[in-house]
Specification:
- The chain is of the alpha/beta class and 140 residues long.
- Helices cover 20% and strands 33% of the residues.
- The protein has helices spanning 8-14, 27-38, 95-103, and strands at 21-24, 41-43, 49-54, 57-63, 87-90, 109-116, 121-127, 133-139.
- Helix 2 (27-38) crosses helix 3.
Length: 140
C-alpha cells in the first residue's frame, strides 16, 4: 500500500485489528520524535495528520482540531500530559539506543533508564511531550 497516495476512504477501509489514534498538540513534532528516536516511518505528514508505520504496524497521529465533532477533546487537559496511563510498547527497538536518542530530543524525557526486567525484556520508559509512555523493549 502506498501511504503517500492512498485515498482517505481506501486507507480507512484497509485498517484491521486494533487501531491506535493519538491526539496530539503538534503532529509534526511528535512525528519527528517517533522517526528520530524509534526509526518509525512517517507518511502523509501535515499539520493535522500523519500515518506512522512500525515493523508492519500502522497507527495515526491527529491534531486536536481534527476531532472537532468528536466528544473526546472535551476531556483533554488544556496543559500538561494527556497520555497518562497508556504505555505504547515497541518490542523491536533497542532501549539503550532509544534512550540515548531521546535524551537529546527536545520535549522527551527518559522516565526510566534501560533496565533488565524479570519478565525477560530489557526496556526503558520514554515520555513524549504529550505524556504518552513509549516503551522500547528487547528480549534478554
Amino acid at each position: 500500500m502506498d501511504f503517500e497516495t492512498i485515498s482517505a476512504g481506501d486507507f480507512g477501509r484497509s485498517l484491521k485489528g486494533v487501531g491506535l489514534n493519538l491526539l496530539v498538540r503538534d503532529v509534526a513534532h511528535l512525528a519527528e520524535f517517533l522517526q528520530q528516536v524509534f526509526a518509525m516511518g512517517v507518511h502523509r505528514l501535515s499539520a493535522d495528520f500523519a500515518i506512522i508505520t512500525y515493523h508492519g504496524d500502522v497507527f495515526q497521529l491527529h491534531a486536536d482540531a481534527t476531532y472537532h465533532a468528536h466528544p473526546l477533546p472535551s476531556l483533554l487537559p488544556e496543559a500538561g500530559p494527556r497520555g497518562g496511563g497508556i504505555e505504547i510498547r515497541l518490542y523491536e527497538t533497542d532501549p539503550d539506543e532509544a534512550a540515548a536518542r531521546a535524551a537529546a530530543f527536545a520535549g522527551a524525557m527518559v522516565l526510566q533508564p534501560p533496565t533488565d526486567k524479570p519478565h525477560g525484556l530489557r526496556e526503558c520508559v520514554i515520555l513524549c511531550e504529550n505524556g504518552y509512555a513509549w516503551v522500547p523493549s528487547r528480549r534478554i
